[in-house]
Write a structure and sequence with these properties.
336 residues; alpha+beta; endopeptidase fold (from Nostoc punctiforme); Lipocalin; 6-stranded antiparallel β-sheet
Length: 336
């Protein structure tokens, strides 16, 4: 598989405010076929857009003349009186009945739930096709699918904002990766979005472009971070110089022993290896660039960074580092 992050990003940028190319928008129990809905109303020149409506700026799916669609990008219903509502935001019509009545709106559908569908459409445009039908439209199923996939690295699973921030600030999440949200204290994942870089995400169901990743799922959230690993650099001279056994020591602390493996994994153990020819697979992941090596523990949102320093002609090769989550210092020495 070859993943094109630019294509996934471009699709998100083009369609975050309107239905994707398949013409479907999901509510809780079914997809809405926007073109079919327009045709049934003899509105063949209309297309689908998301508009904000009501005093609290809820998101709704509307039909609008195609000629005006571009001007409706992140627009409000009050600016488009000709818009025809197909679906309202809340899961139950009764929860917003007063507001809909005041606006003289009577949509046939309610409960927009298009976040995961939009995200998986973006992934597919980049070349990462989600093959499980449930995972293409449900955040909890998408979480399980990405957790088990051989081409993803789960950098964090239901971690706090502080730990997720350590991963993102370290630059380990790339545009075209995925963030999935759950409520604190629960294991049900309710929102999956595309990460578009620089701390921003794109999404449907409360449609947003480059919204801050921390606030996309609401308050008191837990965060799961999935990195699609097909384009990770594991074979260049920059990357391979790190491969081997290292002794990692915190100040006045007990050393640990890391094996940096050729396949992007890191094994950590308390005892020194009996032979540096051992090559265990490991649970953590490593990422290398021209200046540093970063190690992320699988699922935990725990990141360590080591600054590159050229190996000396003789003697021990030692580099300095830090634990990004708490800022504590580390020293790593490569074993002969």
């Amino acid at each position: 598989m070859s993943y094109d992050r630019d294509k996934a990003y471009s699709h998100a940028e083009t369609y975050w405010w309107r239905p994707c190319t398949d013409g479907l928008v999901w509510i809780a129990s079914q997809p809405i076929n926007v073109a079919r809905e327009a045709a049934s109303r003899k509105l063949n020149s209309y297309t689908g857009v998301f508009l904000w409506y009501g005093a609290s700026d809820l998101e709704g799916l509307f039909l609008l003349p195609a000629a005006k669609a571009a001007s409706a990008r992140d627009g409000k219903l009050s600016s488009f009186p000709e818009a025809v509502m197909l679906a309202s935001y809340k899961d139950r019509r009764a929860d917003e009945a007063t507001e809909l009545k005041a606006l003289k709106l009577s949509p046939p559908y309610f409960g927009l739930n298009d976040c995961t569908h939009f995200t998986t459409e973006c992934l597919a445009k980049g070349g990462f096709t989600v093959t499980n039908d449930h995972a293409r439209r449900g955040a909890n199923d998408l979480y399980q699918y990405l957790l088990a996939h051989g081409s993803t690295k789960t950098l964090a699973s239901d971690v706090t904002e502080a730990d997720a921030s350590a991963v993102i600030s370290a630059g380990l999440m790339k545009k075209g990766d995925v963030v999935v949200y759950s409520n604190d204290g629960e294991k049900v994942h309710h929102h999956g979005v595309l990460y578009v870089g620089d701390g921003g995400i794109a999404m449907h169901t409360y449609h947003q472009w480059q919204r801050d990743w921390q606030t996309a799922g609401g308050w008191n959230q837990r965060y799961s971070l999935f990195h699609i690993s097909e384009d990770d650099d594991l074979t260049s001279a920059v990357a391979t110089r790190w491969i081997g056994w290292w002794q990692v020591t915190p100040p006045a602390g007990t050393p640990r022993y890391y094996y940096i493996g050729a396949k992007g994994r890191v094994h950590v153990q308390a005892k020194a290896p009996t032979s540096t020819k051992l090559a265990p697979a490991g649970e953590s992941y490593w990422f290398a660039d021209a200046l540093s090596l970063k190690i992320c523990a699988r699922l935990k949102g725990d990141v360590e960074e080591f600054t590159f320093k050229a190996a000396p002609a003789s003697g021990a090769w030692t580099v300095t580092g830090k634990h990004i989550n708490d800022g504590s210092k580390l020293t790593a020495t490569k074993l002969p």
